[in-house]
Amino acid sequence: MAITRLGPNQDITAAKIAGTINFKNLIINGDMSLAQRGTSITGLTNESNYGSVDRYKPIINGSGTWTSSQETDVPTGQGFANSMKMACTTLDATPNYLFVSQKLEGQMLQQIKKGTANAESLTASFWVKSNKTGTYILELYDADNARRISNSYTINSADTWEKKTLTFAGDTTGTLDNDNAQSLQFNLWLAAGTNFTSGTLGTSWAANTNADRAVGQVNLADSTSNYILFTGIQLEADTSASDFEFLPYDVNLQRCQRYFQTYQSGGMICWSGTTISGANYFQQVRHIVQMRASATIGNFTVAGLNGFASGDPSIDYGDPLGFRATKQSNGNTNEAYFMYKYTADAEL
Question: In a structure prediction context, what are the per-residue pLDDT tens digits for the chain, which is 348 residues long?
């Protein structure tokens, strides 16, 4: 049975106006249209940070070095404008593990009824293109109960967009926590060593056994010529795949900003007005949208100031709605101000 649900920052009226939009896709940014961190990030290796495209994290351990990028190479006539590319820049003939992951909050997943007699089947669909043909693995991981299920698909033709559909049975064991922490992890494997391939592929939900996670997976890390592209990723509560649900760009942006926001152009005015030399001045900064949790504020660049010493303000008293910036004046002036650019990260 298909599930109708609303996404973050959306209400019933907005959903009705949208008509065909019911937020069936559990994956955020499935069309790869958002890349707030940048369109290309190089040097990804060994448990690296998030890549270029929002909400997708390359999980790498002993499996070469990679570049993650947002691309315009897409399947013809399907409505997509962007894809995510992983390209190998340093090879590893004997990898440990490498997969691209999206982590999902438990409170966004209650409708799949996991851990009950009515647990919903989940169907994943996506477009994929690679120079390396062979068997690849898609894995779902229940982080609340340490349970996993894997399914395989085949890239049949090199350098050709192909659509794949995989269905996972509902799991009647292990309910998901109803909170803002990670509950489900969506893992697209790209390389796996013997620790993850020496058993039998775990195609039914079961307690974690590493040897069963990625049996048959090809090694995409074995050549610096290797690459893979994904777009149109959808995970829905159903036994079959429906057409990809395109969201308006602004809606998709707000959903991504729940986890990561960036102020990289212009500069945020954090305080302006009269100052007294030596006094501390405070400004509460509100996030664009409420974030998943209290965010880590970083990548400060002072964009302009007057009446204050150079350097970054201190940040404290953060919560999902925003944070406080504090800076000390170094002069008496009626036109004091300070501005800066920054990022806010509340990723899982």
Answer: 344 444 444 443 444 444 567 899 999 999 999 999 999 999 999 887 898 999 999 999 999 999 999 999 999 999 999 999 999 999 999 999 999 999 999 999 999 999 999 999 999 999 999 999 999 999 999 999 999 999 999 999 999 999 999 999 999 999 999 999 999 999 999 999 999 999 999 999 999 999 999 999 999 999 999 999 999 999 999 999 999 999 999 999 999 999 999 986 566 666 778 889 999 888 888 899 999 999 999 887 777 788 888 777 888 889 999 998 888 898 888 888 877 788 999 999
Q: Where in the chain is the domain with CATH 2.60.120.260?
A: 12-257
For domain 260-345, the CATH architecture is Sandwich (2.60)
What is 12-257's CATH topology? Jelly Rolls (2.60.120)
Cβ proximity of 17 and 65 under 8 Å: no
| CA neighbor of 162 nearest in space, from 130, 129, 124, 189 | 129
Q: Is the pTM of this model over 0.90?
A: yes
List, by residue range, all CATH 2.60.40 domains of the chain.
260-345
- Structural contact between residues 190 and 91, judged by C-beta atoms closer than 8 angstroms: no
List Cβ neighbours of 19 (8 Å cut-off, separation of 6 or more). none
